[in-house]
């Protein structure tokens, strides 16, 4: 498939790509704060609210941002001079995007959806109801934030030169 994005389209797709990545990073911070609050608070109501908020917000929003970031990244790769596999930094970003999108489906969403819908009682009771998912939910936002940050750095510095698949 060979096409070139016009300047206005490239800018629009790039803006959407950055918006999806930045939004995802923001939600990572929010999820980490919610989970940390649920794990450390002495208030049962606060713990229940933190885990419930994560269960309500993350499933509909993160997959859209992940998919949006991946699709716009592929469009930018295919529709610009960079290509998808011609430059090390672009290929690295593509791999990061694919891995993170898969992790959303296999780790983040199942973990968040495993949080019970009706949480009541003391903070310890709420944490007991949530179970191991409480600590398991700290892993996805930390990993994705760091990997998205790596993608950001790759976009700015463009290290690595051309790949062996470059034309």
From TrEMBL:
<feature type="transmembrane region" description="Helical">
    <location>
        <begin position="135"/>
        <end position="157"/>
    </location>
</feature>
<feature type="transmembrane region" description="Helical">
    <location>
        <begin position="90"/>
        <end position="115"/>
    </location>
</feature>
<feature type="transmembrane region" description="Helical">
    <location>
        <begin position="56"/>
        <end position="78"/>
    </location>
</feature>
<keyword id="KW-0812">Transmembrane</keyword>
<protein>
    <recommendedName>
        <fullName>DUF2269 domain-containing protein</fullName>
    </recommendedName>
</protein>
<feature type="transmembrane region" description="Helical">
    <location>
        <begin position="12"/>
        <end position="36"/>
    </location>
</feature>
<keyword id="KW-0472">Membrane</keyword>
<keyword id="KW-1133">Transmembrane helix</keyword>
């Amino acid at each position: 498939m060979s096409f070139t994005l016009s300047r206005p389209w490239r800018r629009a797709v790039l803006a959407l790509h950055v918006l999806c990545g930045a939004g995802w990073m923001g939600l990572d911070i929010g999820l980490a704060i919610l989970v940390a609050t649920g794990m450390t608070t002495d208030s049962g109501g606060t713990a229940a609210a933190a885990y419930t908020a994560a269960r309500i917000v993350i499933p509909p929003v993160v997959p859209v941002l992940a998919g949006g970031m991946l699709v716009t990244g592929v469009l930018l790769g295919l529709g610009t001079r960079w290509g998808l596999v011609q430059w090390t930094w672009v290929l690295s970003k593509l791999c990061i995007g694919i891995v993170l999108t898969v992790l959303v489906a296999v780790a983040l969403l199942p973990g968040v959806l495993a949080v019970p819908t009706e949480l009541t009682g003391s903070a310890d009771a709420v944490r007991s109801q949530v179970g191991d998912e409480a600590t398991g939910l700290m892993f996805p936002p930390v990993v994705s934030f760091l990997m998205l940050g790596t993608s950001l750095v790759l976009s700015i510095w463009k290290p690595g030169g051309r790949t062996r698949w470059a034309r």
